[in-house]
């Protein structure tokens, strides 16, 4: 049984630089990084030393809270450096990669003939268990829990997002194997959401063992959190799991080949991308390997692992995040524009509030940069957030409850249902320039601490 949900609230951010559906380059990185900072709430334990020889699939880190949760190398090579920050916080384990990858052999398995415990053991040993995200809070899934259901969004409405019709078009068998494995981990089924207005062949459409749901509307209609809110809202005491589509494919490759293969097609996008297109590489590759795909003439470039709303600014020497299949390249907006707010005829600036006359050309794309166009102002009550949030929540009250560290009100206003990515548009259009995602992240961290 399927349903069709039309979401009218939201905003498609009209930034230029969408990736053309072609594979322009295959990057075999010299250095890759395994980053514990990609995983919320993780306290990592290092399992390797500098100079150690490892294979793709060899354990590099473990979760101190549950040592069975391993984080493995995406490549074979030599551990080059263990990078620490303030108070010796572990930031990265850097690995000097071989030109030809050698894999740990985990053995070919048929998930349809396995039980839940065997599938969990396989995912844990291979380092693919951290691909499963648990809600509330967006943490690594607890292997001891049986979730209410598992949710997957088969489309992404974020700005310039990776299109799985292209990036996963040859992965149908791997996706099916991944779905077969996930379906054994819950009694509530695997729920896959589709874009009802989608053109092109979605590789999830032919899969079995899924419950289909259909959505339409602007971003964030593709956010799995928004979809869960409309399918089966999370209440206190309930747990659901989510998995990104390209990581479902990686799980399928594990069972079909016996290898922890984290290769993926990554969309290189944004106004500063030179010929926006797709590359094939592995998680943790270094951004400096994008030489030739980045237009760095005429100023500094911000390298974002992910999309412009929720991605991380990693810099040219930074690395692609474990969950990301997109890189966005923007010009740094390190300039001051006098009386910018008083120039309504600026046709090259986009304004959600119709401050500029650019709203008269709704189909136009803009070469946006990172300039905030103003500073932080008073946080006043407004209905502006509700215009871009298609959820039955009160975002202003939720954010203020997080600021006040009022756990009762945070629960009342929906802290269990959201992650920072779900309110990213609220931050983008915020007239007060409030860092809503950071505030919500702090609120979630408080909930994890106090409700443990």
TrEMBL record:
Domain (Na(+)-translocating NADH-quinone reductase subunit A C-terminal) ranges: 266-314
Classification via Pfam families: NQRA_2nd, NQRA_N, NQRA_SLBB
Keywords: Ion transport, NAD, Sodium, Sodium transport, Translocase, Transport, Ubiquinone
Membrane-spanning ranges: none
Top-level enzyme category: translocase
Domain NqrA N-terminal barrel-sandwich hybrid: start-end pairs: 5-98
Residue span(s) of domain NqrA second alpha/beta: 115-259
Superkingdom, natural source: Bacteria
Keyword rRNA-binding: no
E.C. numbers: 7.2.1.1
GO annotation (BP), single: sodium ion transport
Family designation: Belongs to the NqrA family.
Record NCBIfam families: nqrA, PRK05352.1-4
Assembly behavior: Composed of six subunits; NqrA, NqrB, NqrC, NqrD, NqrE and NqrF.
Function field: NQR complex catalyzes the reduction of ubiquinone-1 to ubiquinol by two successive reactions, coupled with the transport of Na(+) ions from the cytoplasm to the periplasm. NqrA to NqrE are probably involved in the second step, the conversion of ubisemiquinone to ubiquinol.
Name of the protein this chain belongs to: Na(+)-translocating NADH-quinone reductase subunit A
């Amino acid at each position: 049984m399927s349903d069709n949900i039309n979401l009218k609230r939201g905003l498609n951010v009209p930034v230029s630089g969408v990736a053309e559906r072609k594979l322009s380059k295959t990057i075999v990185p010299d250095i890759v990084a395994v980053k514990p900072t990609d995983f919320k709430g993780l306290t990592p334990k290092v399992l390797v030393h500098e100079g150690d020889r490892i294979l793709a699939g060899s354990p590099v880190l473990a979760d101190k809270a549950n040592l069975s949760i391993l984080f493995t190398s995406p490549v074979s090579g030599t551990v080059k450096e263990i990078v620490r920050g303030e108070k010796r916080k572990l930031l990265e384990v850097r690995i000097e990669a071989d030109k030809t990858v050698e894999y740990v052999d985990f053995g070919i398995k048929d998930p349809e003939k396995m039980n839940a415990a065997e599938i969990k053991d396989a995912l844990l040993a291979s380092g693919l268990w951290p691909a499963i995200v648990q809600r509330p809070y967006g943490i690594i899934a607890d292997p001891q829990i049986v979730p209410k259901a598992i949710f997957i969004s088969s489309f992404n409405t974020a700005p310039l997002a990776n299109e799985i019709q292209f990036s996963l078009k040859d992965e149908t068998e791997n996706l099916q194997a991944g779905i077969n494995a996930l379906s054994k981990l819950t009694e509530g089924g695997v729920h896959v959401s589709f874009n009802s207005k989608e053109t092109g062949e979605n590789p999830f459409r032919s899969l079995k063992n899924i419950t289909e749901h259909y959505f339409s509307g602007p971003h964030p209609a593709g956010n799995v959190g928004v979809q869960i809110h409309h399918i089966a809202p999370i209440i206190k005491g309930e747990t659901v799991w989510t998995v990104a589509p390209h990581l479902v494919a990686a799980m399928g490759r594990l069972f079909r080949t016996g290898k922890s293969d984290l290769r993926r097609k990554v969309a290189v996008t944004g106004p500063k991308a030179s010929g926006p297109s797709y590359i094939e590489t592995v998680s943790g590759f270094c951004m400096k390997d994008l030489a030739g795909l980045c237009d760095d003439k005429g100023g500094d470039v911000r390298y974002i692992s992910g999309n412009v709303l929720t991605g991380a600014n990693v810099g040219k020497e930074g690395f692609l995040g474990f969950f990301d299949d997109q890189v966005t390249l923007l010009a740094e907006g390190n300039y001051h524009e006098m009386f910018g707010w008083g120039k309504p005829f600026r046709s090259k600036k986009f304004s959600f509030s119709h401050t500029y006359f650019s709203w008269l050309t709704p189909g136009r794309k803009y070469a946006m940069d990172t300039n905030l166009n103003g500073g932080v102002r008073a946080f006043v009550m407004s209905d502006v957030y509700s215009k871009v949030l298609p959820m039955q929540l009160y975002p202003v009250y939720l954010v203020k409850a997080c600021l006040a560290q009022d756990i009762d009100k945070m629960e009342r206003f929906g802290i269990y249902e959201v992650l920072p990515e779900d309110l990213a548009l609220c931050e983008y259009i915020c007239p007060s320039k409030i860092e809503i995602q950071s505030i919500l992240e702090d609120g979630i961290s408080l909930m994890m601490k106090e409700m443990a």
